[in-house]
Amino acid sequence: MKNFIYSCYLVLLFSCGEEKEVDYLKEYYPYTNDAEQSILDKDFKNALQLYKKGFSNVNYIHSVDLYNAMQCAMRINKFEDTESIAKILFQRGLHLSKIKESNSYNSLPQEPVSYTHLTLPTIYSV
Predict the structure, then answer these.
(1) Where are the chain's structural domains?
(2) Model confidence over 79-125: pLDDT tens digits?
(3) What is the largest CA-CA distance in the chain?
(4) DSSP label at residue 49
(5) CB 70, CB 86: distance < 8 Å
(6) pLDDT tens for residues 19-76?
(7) Which of 44, 100, 108, 121 has CB 3.0 to 4.6 Å from 72, enough for a Cys bridge?
């Protein structure tokens, strides 16, 4: 039943009105550019916030920006953000080995971290 309701919602979403054109030069790239500058300054919390703001403005997010946002989330121990971004990247074809190669991977807990609605190790267990 849940899938049926979700499917109806998607049909309505895509059939109602046209999507407005998004100007990436104004609504996306300034945020990702500032986020990358924050990464260079080692301000990962600000970088993640900037990425999220840019992501919320557009319909398509570049995978490299998702990957960078995920790295920021790992470095500041935002495990829920890490998992949600990782799921998108895995759907786009990112391999677990790419995440394991990163320095941020070592900051992830080695034991399961339970939240009320998720268990984190699913993003890095094979």
Answers:
(1) 22-123
(2) 899 889 989 988 888 877 766 676 666 655 555 544 444 443 444 33
(3) 48
(4) H
(5) yes
(6) 568 899 999 999 999 999 999 999 999 999 999 999 999 999 999 999 999 999 989 9
(7) 44
HEC profile of 57-126: CCCCCCHHHHHHHHHHHHHCCCHHHHHHHHHHHHHCCCCHHHHHCCHHHHHCCCCCCECCCCEHHHHCCC
Q: What is the CATH number of domain 22-123?
A: 1.25.40
| Residue 79: partners with Cβ closer than 8 Å, 6 or more residues away | 73, 108, 109, 113, 115, 120
- Picking from 39, 89, 40, 43, the residue whose alpha carbon sits closest to that of residue 64 is 89
What residues have CB less than 8 Å from 32, skipping those under 6 apart?
50, 51, 54, 62, 65
Any idea what the Cα angle at residue 78 is, between residues 122 and 50, rounded to 5°? 125
Say if residues 33 and 51 touch (Cβ distance below 8 Å).
Answer: no
Q: Find the angle CA(83)-CA(126)-CA(68) to the nearest 5 degrees.
A: 35
Q: Please give the structure tokens belonging to residue 111.
A: 């034991």
